[in-house]
Amino acid sequence: MTEKTTPTSAALAELSSAYRRWRSSRLGRITDALEQELILELVGPVTGLRVLDVGCGDGQLALALARAGARVSAVDTDPRMLTAARRCFEASAVEAELSEADAQALPFESKSFDVVTAVTVLCFVDEPERAVAEMARVLRPGGRLVIGELGRYSFWAAWRRLRGWLGHATWRAARFRTVGELRGLAANARLNVRAVRAAVFYPPVAPAAAALAPLDTWLGRHFVTGGAFIALLAIKR
Known about the structure:
With 237 residues, the chain is of the alpha/beta class. It has one domain (9-236): Rossmann fold (3-Layer(aba) Sandwich). Helices cover 46% and strands 22% of the residues. It has 9 helices and 7 strands; from the N terminus they run ααβαβαββαβαααβαβ. Strands 3-2-1-4-5-7-6 form a 7-stranded mixed β-sheet, with helices on both faces. It is globular and about 45 Å long.
């Protein structure tokens, strides 16, 4: 394999620090809220369901799913992210099963989960086909997989590529994907795609985010091209 997309240790350290800065910024708060709203809408009701969040980062999505009534398991490859996620759950007095694991080799039995989520995970793995196959494997028949990824055609993708070329370890490692690529990954894992949506149509500038965020959900229902964040819902056959 000639292309290496897995982040190095430097990229992971940079990513951990970037999460903290991002969460504290106005642009980050607006953007995260739109992305999480879209993911939760596609996931649907989770009360009493067993849910796996792959690549959980600092645990914000996993926490939202647990608060919605799910029995949550969450994994990440970076122990620093898992430490942040544990602190997040402890501060909220909410329980979840957190463990260090690779999306390409999930440590769970087949047909274990009703829902699997994976947000900005495939852009950082060597073998996305294998990762999606693993997510499909641990889903029960009729279970839902919701993937959120960085779209290839957007202001944000151009900005991130430029930062990667200038030496930013995280964005040098990332691969941005098209809707067609995400559909192909789902089809190869024998999943039926039910919906594809997008979010974050504004440029990566806080005033633009504040001004255009009220229109973003409408745009995401009617367009995909131009969205910095693409979300796909697929069902296991």
